Amino acid sequence: MATAVRLLVLFLLFLSSPNPILSLYEDQVGLMDWHQQYIGKVRHAVFHTQKTGRKRVVVYTEENVLASLDLRHGEIFWRRVLGTNDAIDGIDIALGKYVITLSSGGSILRAWNLPNGQMVWESSLQGPKHSKALLSVEKGSKSKKYNIVIVLSRGCLHAVSSIDGEVLWKKDFDAQSLEIQQVIQLPGSDFLYVVGFSGSSLFEVYQINAKNGEMLKHEIASFSGDFSGELSLVSSEMLVALDATGSSLITISFHSEQISFQQAYISHLVEGFSGPAMMLPSPVTGIFAVKINTVTVFIEVTDKGKLEVLDKTEQPTVISDALSFSETQQAFALVQHEGNKIHFIVKLADNWGSNLLKETIELDQQRGLVHKVFIHNYIRTDRSHGFRALVVMEDHSLLLLQQGAVVWSREDGLASIVDVTTSELPVYKEGALVAKVEHNLFEWLKGHWLKLKGTLMLASPEDVAAIQRIRLKSSEKSKMTRDHNGFRKFLIVLTRGGKLFALHTGDGQIVWSVLLHSLRYSDRCQHPMGVNLYQWQVPHHRAMDENPSVLIVGRCGQRSDAQGVISFVDTYTGRELRSFGLVHSIAQVIPLPFTDSTEQCLHLIIDADKHAHLYPKTPEAVGIFQSELSKVYWYSVEADNGIIRGYGLKSGCVGKEAGEDCFDTRELWSVVFPSESEKIIATVTRKPNEVVHTQAKVVADQDVMYKYLSKNLLFVATVAPKASGEIGSATLEESWLIVYLIDTVTGRILHRMSHHGSHGPVHAVFSENWVVYHYFNLRAHRYEMSVIEIYDQSRAENKDVWKLVLGKHNLTLPISLYSRAEAMTKSQSYFITHSVKTMAVTLTAKGITSKQLLIGTIGDQVLALDKRFLDPRRTVNPSQAEREEGIIPLTDTLPIIPQSYITHALKVEGLREIVIVPAKLESTTLVFAHGVDLFFTRLAPSKTYDSLTEDFSYALLLLTIVALVAAIFVTWVLSERKDLQEKWR
Amino acid sequence: MAPINGSKPLVLLFFVELCVSLFSTAGAISPAYGDGYTIYGRVKIPQGLGVKGFALPGKISNVKILLNGGQNITFLRPDGYFSFHNVPAGTHLIEVAAAGHFFSPVRVDVSARNPGKVQAALTENRKGLSELVLEPLHEEQYYEIREPFSIMSVVKSPMGLMVGFMLVFVFLMPKLVENMDPEEMRRAQEEMRNQGVPSLASLLPGAGRS
């Protein structure tokens, strides 16, 4: 009977066993994930307001995003993310309903429907050479026939119909050396003027009929000096150019029969002039601006070509383009900084002296300087003209200013994240900041009662809405204190704008943001850029009172030998603790597994001369490091030369007065790949914070295999030089992919495998003892994924029990990388449908939970794929024992189950990276995917076996218990009665 | 996969059914100005077949067409046509990224010797295409569908199991006990007492006397 009961229970358990696919119900969206949409730093904006309908502004950004924003709230109406090598050169609105974009260096012209962003037409423009790409849409005449877009692209002038994208005429400029600078179209005339330089001192003008492209006039004039190539149109017949030395201005009048030049030295105009000048785009007719060092000088051009200085200012100033807001009037805007305030000034074009509008706005200091301003006018209720300005800030954020206030702002810096790390939240303390008050017991019960109704499908639509609201608004997830499960953390993100943000993992809110002082433009550091983030101080037991902090590493320029910059930021408050420019460059940063007495992590910074510098620069840190010096090895990958080198360290820098914290390196080994046949395209190592739970793997036939677990393994993929480009660039015979597993301490190649007829790009992940990599198979013309698992054979004989009992095993022997490793590898390959942008693998606190691969697909979705699908022991017909172990029968293609997209129906546009952070709860891992959009979710690769699910119904549990207790009493009474009857009988 | 009819145009169906020999030819290419060719194609997303309307059927404004893993990206025109310009001769891969639909990547051979010829084939099932008309292989449903309320789901829940188990004990056990041989019963009781397993009765107040 007992077996019968057990069988029944087993059967019931089987019935209730969860679906093996990780999946989500539609009403669970937003419970543990959040998604934020951004566009990036705006490069240009075009306003579009009709008398009726929605007011919008169309922008394009440095992330190649074309977007239409709501002018009232700053929300995105629609957005199109173009390819990475399809940068937009120009944008305009034609016919009042199409957005015209010119992209890819002027070779692609597209029209987009303004209300919904549907592409209407696309034309490809071709020409003989690269040149400036310019776009101008005919605006002057009102006649319907005149819907021409004039495009300068690849050295040719094209007139394109804005209705269907048909090229109406094309004018090829034969002169090879002609550098066209501007295409001038005068309002109300049919003539186009194309002006440019030929060589350094020849100035050319072409007059062209805009209707048919017929060339009417061509004039060349030679100037005695050299032009710098900068040109500004100041009036309908006058241009101002700068000479090559940047010390004199040349006024060119080109309408008259003869082109005439007039040269004026800036030193005559501006007192105390020094250094080369820079032209700023001319705001309006008759006025142009020149920037000399930090001084902006406004110069007026009189009718006779005489130059007069109108104004000069030392404050950082940004000028908008001209805006014609009525039939006759033109205005432009200036934004000037003064302390932490900005002045927004609108002036009429013909009246410099007075301001049409002057507003002073206080701005958040963390936004930095104004980089760009775009103005737009509107008609107030009293029929006067009002102006609003769209301002792009140094931190890439976008603000709309109107009536002296910031109407809305967008943190678009988050569209270009450089690096991500996490930080714990403060521990709950009395008085610590807690986002919301716990709601009371009644509300709690009410919530659960509603949930119960939902489970039993008794809820009315209002109830369903209420349930959804309660679930989404759960104050639990956005609290500002540490939680037991480790779900709540700060995501510390560094953006390309040099700003550091702390995002709360609960709901994605920005907790603090700081514009890093060290990553701002200065005379010493002309092109600062943030590179990496590291955890600097992670206090947990010795220094609990310290706040955690992060290390930000940057450099002044693209090259790796540029001067380095480091900065430290407190992650609770967002305060920049200290920052300094380094005397050396930063080529590589190695976080060391040692901490000092204040729990600061030791970091080794390798400079371009291969000297190692230890941080923090304290005697204590040096002392700790000195004792471990002989155990520290590092390697460098020189992808261009095809060399991987391994190094050791020795104390003291030779020939340098640097202190004790500088170490010399000695080369230990190098692996040189033949440059004519192999090119390194991918290298990947294990995550340093990965935890492995079991060293051995028990396979089906009670056999044990020991995983080869070394933190010092490097996976290297090389391809044939021809096959390193895009697909289609190499033929089957001339492409191959070779993968290596290299020990980075000894330089030994543990495994080498080649895939013939395979092509890059290669994306790989390395975890525990396996590597999974994705590449293109030319033979099948499909993408393929391969897995390599590496096992340690030297410990294989330990599985004999008798040896263990008698102590004849080698488990207690110290494992040294110098002892000859007997590694055994297994591998297998599978087809996969999608192209991959990035790959990651889940990481949990203790490494017990099974692994999932997270694949960022070309469609900007993130697919979770169980590691069991990539098991080299899969066979077509697994035996019964193997099936029990969980081996899936072999198929040639990896399955794509739509329910296992962790981004579900959302897209992470422009996906670049997937960041994995383990939670404290073993079953769960936190996933943060970023690109132009941000997406965060929690993932449980083996289901949440160690906690109840979100939708667990406590009310149903209570009800069941009550029912059980009631049943107990009923049966007790019944049994008592029966007993009594028995006794009476 | 046997060749049936090489020139019959594709009809708007869920699957490319009338497709034929592995590589059939199609005139979707034209020599262009500079160094490359132009690939013209069309994406057809079945209208109205989208049953679970999470992705609006026919919403093609955000469909991306990708050449060679993102080297070139283009969008669809309102009529579903797309084109790639300046494509060099060779073998290329076209992918379609459309939320809610699963498209097979397409292998496209652009012939240098014979301009004006393109060969296309789906890589998923190696079907050739006579025209470069791409249709989704199937729809993608990103969410689990909540099953309507059924008594089984309650029974299968842990609470349901508890109740069910108890009911079994309350109503079936006495029956089983009744049917038992008294001798065996006594022996079982003896055993239980020896093991000291707390019986249900002993847990209840006033029942411990027996």
Strand and helix map with partners:
The complex is a heterodimer of chains A (985) and B (210).
Chain A: H1 2-16, E1 34-36, E2 42-48, E3 56-61, E4 65-70, E5 76-81, E6 88-94, E7 98-103, E8 108-113, E9 119-124, E10 134-137, E11 148-153, E12 156-161, E13 167-172, E14 178-185, E15 191-198, E16 202-209, E17 215-222, E18 227-235, E19 238-243, E20 248-253, E21 260-265, H2 266-269, E22 277-284, E23 287-292, E24 295-301, E25 307-313, E26 317-319, E27 323-324, E28 330-338, E29 341-348, E30 351-362, E31 370-379, E32 385-393, E33 398-402, E34 405-410, E35 417-424, H3 441-455, H4 461-473, E36 489-495, E37 499-504, E38 510-515, E39 528-537, E40 549-556, E41 563-570, E42 576-585, E43 588-595, E44 601-606, E45 611-615, H5 619-628, E46 633-638, E47 643-651, E48 662-672, E49 679-685, E50 696-699, E51 703-707, E52 713-719, E53 736-743, E54 749-756, E55 758-767, E56 770-777, E57 782-792, H6 801-806, E58 823-832, E59 836-841, E60 852-857, E61 862-866, H7 880-885, E62 913-918, E63 925-930, E64 934-939, H8 954-984
Antiparallel strand pairs in A: 1-64, 2-3, 3-4, 4-5, 6-7, 7-8, 8-9, 10-11, 11-12, 12-13, 14-15, 15-16, 16-17, 18-19, 19-20, 20-21, 22-23, 23-24, 24-25, 26-28, 27-28, 28-29, 29-30, 31-32, 32-33, 33-34, 35-36, 36-37, 37-38, 39-40, 40-41, 41-42, 43-44, 44-45, 45-48, 46-47, 47-48, 49-52, 50-51, 51-57, ...
Helix pairs in contact in A: 3-4
Chain B: E1 24-26, E2 29-31, E3 37-43, E4 64-67, E5 72-75, E6 81-87, E7 90-97, E8 101-102, E9 106-110, E10 118-122, E11 128-129, E12 133-134, E13 138-139, H1 151-156, H2 158-179, H3 182-195, H4 200-203
Parallel strand pairs in B: 3-12
Antiparallel strand pairs in B: 1-10, 2-3, 3-6, 4-5, 4-7, 7-9, 8-13, 9-10, 10-11
Keywords (chain B): Membrane, Signal, Transmembrane, Transmembrane helix
Transmembrane segments (chain B): 159-177
GO molecular function (chain B): carbohydrate binding
Structure, explained:
The complex is a heterodimer of chains A (985) and B (210). Chain A is mainly β and 985 residues long. Among the domains of chain A are: 1-18 and 952-985; 315-410; 412-424 and 481-586, Lipocalin (Beta Barrel); 435-478, no CATH class; 588-672, no CATH class. In chain A, 10% of the residues lie in helices and 45% in strands. The longest helix of chain A is centred in the last third of the chain and has 31 residues, at 954-984. Chain B has 210 residues and is α+β, with helices and mostly antiparallel strands. Chain B is 22% helix and 26% strand. Chain B is built from four helices and 13 strands. In chain B, strands 1, 4, 5, 7, 9, 10 and 11 form a seven-stranded antiparallel β-sheet that branches. In chain B, strand 4 (64-67) and strand 5 (72-75) form a beta hairpin. At the A-B interface, helix 1, strand 8, strand 9 and helix 8 of A face strand 5, strand 6, strand 7 and helix 2 of B.
